[in-house]
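Reply to dn_fold:

You asked what the input looked like. This is it:
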Amino acid sequence: MFLFRLPSLLLIPVILGATACFAQTDKTVWEDPYANGIAAMVEGEIITFSDIRREMGPIIPQVVRESRSREELNKNLDELAREIMQNLIDRVLIVREYRKQDKFNIPQSIIENEFDDTLIRDFNNDRSRFLRYLKSQNMTIREFRKDLEEKIIVSVMRSQMRKSMSMISPEKIEQYYVENKIQFFQEERVHLRQIVMRASSPERVELTLQAARNVIYELDNGARFADMVVQYSEDPRSDRGGDWGWVQRSDIRKELADVAFALEPGTYTRDPVVIGNHVFILYVEDKRDEGIQPIEEVREIIEERIMSSISREAQQKWVARLREGAYIRYNI
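and this is what came back:
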């Protein structure tokens, strides 16, 4: 590996616009006198300051919001730029590794579908808007497609490594659970379903309340709660039987929480709850006291966490090996 590190430019052109950015957080466009300057070279491929700035663009508003001073903003932008530059270098190395291997082949249709999805997601399927964006970034459609393809390749290569990870042993899962039990503490919860009826005006609340009492009468006489939801509820989850899943006290309004958490599993409110123009009938399907979740409930979560950690470490070592065998020159 050949590695040169020239004197730092104290972050490329982004820093030149930092003061303006800090003063006007909604403006992230500035003049870039070094736009096509070379920030790094990797295996003969050039990464320009403009490439780095393009990747930084969507993230800069958040960095500006989180920075408490111009000095902190400059520091954060500098760190972000260097991180993005390294990511772009790694992308080159990963794509080159992909090209060397015959076992991977991404169909062109996947790239085309991603291109179409990007047009819809990011540009509201407005081709004129997309072309204006390309012009502002000094990119051609061909370059945009190449960039998109390389991002897909990196994603595929990283996910392939994740798939190659062996299954996590039960002993490792149990050890993680014992050492991290506090992470699985949960407050008191109820599995909540509800029927929501809305009065069209304050004057009609009493009529809606009477209709809710009629629903409770039907429930008392054997009607299924899910059927009553479909028939009467205006809840956004009425198509799921009014099921809001497991909720904690802090997840719902106090007026509802006080009633719901006083119910026993398998019971519903005897009196409807009125909040403004809305009338609620609550049904608690199940209930759990506060405490540590049993390992059976969190086994998949633990396995995912361990797998992610192992995969992340393996990827870091893999990319480090790619860097070691590559010619890289940093100009910042």
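The radius of gyration is 28 Å.
Hope that clears it up.
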